[in-house]
Amino acid sequence: MSKTICAINAKGGVAKTTIIVNLAGALAKLEKKVLVVDLDPQGNTTENLGCQDVKADITDLLLKGKKFAQVMVDRGDMHVIPAIHQRSINLETELTVTSLGEIKLLKAIKDRSDDYDYILIDCPPGLGKITRNAVYAANYYIIPMMAEPFSLAGRNFIIKFANEALEFNDDLKALGFVFSKYNEDLRNNLKHFVVRTVNKDDFPTFNTFIREDTKLQSCIPFGQHIFEFTENDSKLKSTNAVEDYLDLAKEVIQKTK
To answer: I need a labelling partner for 85 at 20 to 30 A (CA). Which of 124, 125, 136, 192 fits?
Structure first.
């Protein structure tokens, strides 16, 4: 039985996509069978994983009657359910007006749960019907955050949203906050203030912090996660992102045993 994990946050720009893409890469590196579901109509996860010339996407799976195999992309190290912006731009609206629209993803992937060790779901910014699909289908959720003051706003609302999902999905558990773009410079008091503030919450936080690393942006034009991007360059294999995402994957495996 797979462990299904969604990344949720009402805010954009908190590295949800970067975390999903590179956590998937790390889990694959650790020889786990991984499915990534791009639930964000912007399709950034799809693009970041180099899924091109895609003929069908998440909208076709959830609303147009396409079968899983017709939509799934095999990129070698993992499978991907893509999102194409032009096709999925109205997904939120369509799910809202569709009967039982909030459980379409659950129905679409439940029969494939034995095929994977981990299913990772990237969500759009916001807490609408699309994100509700994710939390109803998931076993676990994470909340990506940056160590910046603006990330503090609304975190309790996100937790409340997830807790309300327990009425339908009583298997849903919080894995915790994941900090990205972290700078260890002790002189940067604002970042440490944010971390201290979050640590006071009655909510778990991952021990692994994803440090700043320009290589994470360099991967994107190549449609690669950090492990592919650094694979053939011994100088890059010790980059912060490689170390941190492997540590994050190991922590996820430990937390979901």
So the answer is: 136
Report pTM: 0.94
CA dihedral 15, 131, 228, 145 (to 10 degrees): 20
Angstrom distance (rounded) from CA 133 to CA 4: 12
CA distance 38 to 195: 29
Please list, in sequence order, all residues whose beta carbon lies within 8 angstroms of the beta carbon of residue 170, skipping any fewer than 6 positions away.
none
Q: Please choose, from the candidates 204, 217, 213, the residue with its C-alpha nearest in 3D space to the C-alpha of residue 240.
A: 213
Nearest alpha-carbon partner for 8 in 147, 142, 203, 151: 142
Residue with tokens 């969500």, as numbered in its chain: 123
pLDDT > 60? residue 187: no
Task: State how far the Cα of 50 lies from the Cα of 99, in Å rounded to an integer.
Answer: 33
Q: How far apart are CA 123 and CA 181, in angstroms?
A: 19
Asked whether residue 62 carries a pLDDT value surpassing 70, the answer given is: yes
Question: Quick check: helix, strand or coil at residue 232?
Answer: coil
Q: Is 125 left (phi over 0), alpha (psi -120 to 50) or beta?
A: beta
Q: Count other C-beta atoms under 10 Å from residue 105's C-beta.
A: 28
Alpha helices in the chain (DSSP H): 16-29, 44-48, 58-63, 68-71, 85-88, 91-97, 104-109, 129-137, 155-165, 189-199, 215-218, 226-229, 240-255
Mean pLDDT of 160-184: 91
Concatenated DSSP letters for 155-167?
Answer: HHHHHHHHHHHTT
